[in-house]
Design a protein that fits this description.
The protein is an alpha/beta fold. About 15% of the residues lie in helices and about 25% in strands. Strand 10 and strand 11 form a beta hairpin. The longest helix is centred in the first third of the chain and has 9 residues, at about 5-10.
């Protein structure tokens, strides 16, 4: 099974030259550390940053330079800072090529729940609603099961939805899954993980065609 860093490393392979990419809170923020050095990518954070780089080394943090999750970040040459209105204008105007989000649940038709657990205090949905409503390419980085060992890859989400039918691909510690009109298609499995283990950990039905390759990290 993969750790959070390996999940981010696999998702980084989906980032293409010239992309503008929004990174959500959690595992997605790690993706910037693993993007190929021979391509140019602009990472955007909804609090008003374009041109984020990897996380700073310990002792080199600047408390005034943060992402939407209030983590200290670095910026690359040419980076810019702007207000939230401009940032969300960029998101709503569909000027972001790829959005990478964390999630608590994803359903087989691409619904995502990533903002609220009933009974727990939350400040609100935040920018996630704008991201899922506007983005055409959403990849979710998440754990396959919760702490109780229950699947988070579901036929139908049980938590309040953030967006409907918007997720294109999911990368977990066990597998890479594509959301198709017929449900989740198993594309890759984590090194050392069997197809049977993935099926056992997944509440939704899986489409399995041919030999499923291991992820290359």
């Amino acid at each position: 099974m993969l750790g959070k860093e390996e999940i981010a490393k696999r998702i980084a392979q989906e980032v293409q030259d010239g992309y503008y990419v929004n990174l959500g809170i959690g595992i997605p923020t790690l993706v910037a550390n693993y993007v190929r050095t021979d391509i140019e990518v602009e990472f955007q954070s909804e609090n008003g940053v374009l041109g984020m780089g990897p996380f700073p080394f310990e002792g080199e943090e600047d408390a005034d330079v943060i992402n939407a999750g209030k983590q200290t970040i670095t910026t690359l040459p040419g980076a810019s800072f702007f207000d939230s209105a401009t940032s969300f204008g960029m998101i709503r105007g569909q000027h972001v090529d790829l959005t990478i989000l964390g999630a608590m649940e994803v359903s087989e038709n691409g619904d995502i729940a990533n903002w609220k657990i009933p009974g727990k205090m939350v400040k609100g949905m935040g920018g996630a609603m704008d991201l899922v409503a506007s983005a055409e390419n959403i990849i979710v980085a998440m754990m396959h099961v919760n702490k109780a060992g229950e699947s988070k890859i579901l036929k139908q989400c049980s938590l309040p939805l953030t967006g409907v039918g918007c997720v294109k691909k999911v990368v977990t510690e066990l597998a890479v899954l594509e959301v198709t009109p017929n449900g989740f298609k198993l594309l890759e499995r984590a090194p050392g993980v069997t197809v049977e283990q993935i099926i056992a950990a997944t509440e939704a039905d899986l489409i399995i065609e041919g030999v499923i390759p291991e992820m290359k990290l």
